[in-house]
């Protein structure tokens, strides 16, 4: 079929904005601050084969794993003899099937037109709690996936338009905030329905034959463009390594090693040599490793290209089974999605810096700087859970300083406004400011980290901190210096101040104050004398 290029562009842009519109609907109708304020959710549209057609510019660690996860769901249903029907919606959070971690609940809705499957509307959202041993379902010391929360394999939450109430009741009965969970699930359902409606409108206007031909053209064009852009990387082999701190034992380093190969039209990323999976929640399932790799390569090679399956096809990723970046079930993975994903991206960036040094920035703060807190609020007579990530400094880059106090790389969330937090949770904020001494020196400086502290007003709470770069600062490039280190503290009501490990779960009492100090970004280029 001969395609009009203008029509192709109209459909491509319609798909892209439909994914963005899905995200707007999800955000606007969600209950949790984690979604409606931090916007910790992602939306995409895929072909009937699970190939990515369009995605909104949401969370990188979600988006790269969505096509991998949908293809796994398709295989799972085929293996179990389950068919797709109109008005079905499938729910899953098993990270070994749909990627990321248990807190990220994925909904998959098949899109039918004239009784024919024409695609999938998909979204993923981080729920503030999915059960498990600690509030927020993100612990520092879980040794099994099943300690981290409810594990849901692909299952029909809605079957031909009818809610599976027993399934819903079972799930919400195991979480700490069932009202919030129900509200966020309804928001996800609304977003999935909206994506379906927009694709059906395209089918009604253009017909399925033209629509499918356009799908193929969109993917083919992006793949051709990506292969051309990859040729900017000189042929050769580029290796790098980077580490995570204090995962199993304080003082230990756990290494991620990567080898990039560009040979002819082949571009591969090999994580052989990476340390083995750990008995701690910092393993990254293969979907996360794909996400971090795709993000790093695309950011450097062709950041402006429309994101779809064609961009992913030329990038071949290998990660040994049983390693930190492709663990065997039931290894725990909650922090792998948060922290290990950041370090995978850093390692790939560092390898790319050898190949195209004028394109790669110095390391960003390299952590999501996670704080998860929950307890019982006697004023409201119910459990509460609050989840946040905190920004830091981005790395200096050729021609520009880094940015201060920003989320970088695998997270793309906002911060939750202090006013919203204090209105709904028993927390009183004391500080929220930049740390002006944490930038990495260089011709172009890194950005600064932040200091953020709050006092607990409720009777007690359990707090988990998951961070990085407490001992080894984010690296500089081309003579630039490392960014400043992170530090975490708790100041007790009696005035005692305790320095915390970068990964810790602790109890706080009324009047205690948590202090978070995030890293700065690395510097780029040798600082000029006198600067």
Walkthrough of the structure:
There is one protein chain. With 531 residues, the protein is α+β, with helices and mostly antiparallel strands. It has two domains: 5-222, no CATH class; 361-531, no CATH class. The chain contains twelve helices and 20 strands. The strands form four sheets. Strands 2-1-5-4-3-6-7 form a seven-stranded antiparallel beta sheet. The chain is globular and about 70 Å long. The termini are far apart. The model has no long low-confidence stretch (mean pLDDT 96).
How are the strands ordered across the major sheet?
Answer: 2-1-5-4-3-6-7
Morphology:
globular
**What is the averaged pLDDT score?**
96
Largest β-sheet summary: 7 strands, antiparallel
According to DSSP, the number of beta strands is 20
- Fraction of residues in β-strands: 15-25%
Q: What percent of residues adopt helix (DSSP H or I)? A: 25-40%
What's the N-to-C terminus distance? 62 Å
Low-confidence stretches: none
Radius of gyration, in angstroms, nearest whole number: 23 Å
* Domain tally: 2
Coarse structural class: alpha+beta
Number of helices: 12
Descriptors:
alpha+beta, globular
Concise account of the structure shown:
This protein has helices at residues 5-29, 33-36, 60-63, 66-79, 95-98, 165-172, 178-206, 208-230, 286-301, 309-312, 334-355, 418-424; strands at residues 41-46, 52-55, 89-92, 104-113, 116-126, 155-159, 162-163, 236-245, 253-263, 266-270, 315-318, 370-377, 382-388, 427-435, 449-456, 460-466, 487-491, 497-499, 503-509, 513-517.
